TrEMBL record:
GO terms for biological process: transmembrane transport. CDD domains: TM_PBP2. InterPro entries: BP-dep_ABC_trans_perm, MetI-like, MetI-like_sf. Keywords: Cell membrane, Membrane, Transmembrane, Transmembrane helix, Transport. This is Carbohydrate ABC transporter permease. PANTHER family: INNER MEMBRANE ABC TRANSPORTER PERMEASE PROTEIN YCJP, MALTOSE TRANSPORT SYSTEM PERMEASE-RELATED. GO terms for cellular component: plasma membrane. Its main location: membrane. PROSITE patterns: ABC_TM1. It is found in: Cell membrane. Belongs to the binding-protein-dependent transport system permease family. It comes from Chelativorans petroleitrophicus. The chain crosses the membrane at residues 12-34, 76-97, 109-130, 142-165, 186-211, 243-264.
Length: 278
């Protein structure tokens, strides 16, 4: 009986810890979304009950002084393009590292350098990238921002794709090679279908990191190419902080990543656990 009670207590404690962890994540997001439906006075007065208003969302989306829809488009362009580049380069690099008979020390050094580079704060690279982009005429262009985001997220994508490519059975590749498959055919018809869950997981994480990146986007972009995080920061002005409109913008910025996660959830879970299961 005591053992049964102890088990129930452990289960209850586990549930309490999980609920607390979920609350830590969910409550700030819920508060931000709710703040988007409040007036500035209601928010600053700390009213618990309030009458929802749509003014903030209308102001953010349709005001003549707002460029939020343009910023939204910019973030989608940068996020989708940099994610696609990361997937292509990371997949080819991972296949090269694990299938082209590089010496073991080359693979280890390459992956270690990628990890070290990933730990460098983006803001430490922003000024150098701005100088480089300006010197070649790429300042205030999507090209510079896309290349910067690709560089920032490529190490993570490389590490993830290395796991999935490494776990592909070599027997399948050898059988395809015996049947006369060239390298492009092998990659397209053998490797890619097997690592599709890994591609989905890597794509979602890369897109989310690109979508949320602020420091480099602030440095390399101007009004025409500014992304959503830069646009949200502009609601904090010198003499006024537009809290409710900032909250409405933040709530809208969640939608692409949330939609992507819902669509690819099954593949993400499978991709993130595939290496561990094997």
């Amino acid at each position: 009986m005591s053992g049964s009670v102890s088990h129930r207590e452990r289960t209850a404690l586990t549930h309490i810890v999980l609920i607390a962890a979920a609350a830590i994540v969910i409550v700030p997001v819920a508060w931000t979304i709710a703040a988007g439906f409040r007036t500035q006075i209601s928010l600053l007065m700390g009213e618990f009950f309030f009458k929802p208003v749509w003014f903030n969302f209308a102001e953010v989306l349709f005001s003549k002084t707002s460029d939020f829809l343009l910023n939204y488009r910019n973030s989608i362009i940068v996020g989708v393009t940099s994610t696609a580049l990361c997937l292509v380069v990371a997949t080819l690099a991972a296949w090269s590292l694990h299938r082209m008979r590089w010496p073991g020390w080359v693979v280890h050094i390459f992956l270690a350098w990628a990890l070290i580079f990933h730990m460098i704060p983006p803001v430490a690279l922003a000024s150098a990238w701005y100088t480089m982009a300006r010197s070649v005429g790429l300042d205030n262009t999507f090209t510079a921002l896309i290349l910067a985001h690709t560089t920032l997220n490529l190490p993570m994508a490389l590490w993830m794709m290395s796991v999935f490519v490494r776990d592909v059975p070599r027997e399948l590749e050898e059988a395809a090679a015996i049947d006369g498959a060239t390298t492009p055919v092998l990659l397209r018809h053998v490797i890619l279908p097997i690592i599709a869950p890994g591609l989905a997981a890597t794509a979602v994480l890369t897109f989310v990191f690109s979508w949320n990146e602020f420091a480099v986007a602030l440095t390399l972009s101007m009004k025409q190419t500014a992304t959503v995080p830069v646009a949200i920061a502009k609601f904090a002005q010198d003499f006024e902080i537009q809290y409710t409109q900032m909250a409405a913008s933040a709530a809208l910025s969640i939608l692409p990543a949330l939609l992507l996660l819902l669509i690819a959830q099954r593949y993400i879970v499978k991709g993130l656990t595939q290496g561990a299961v094997k």
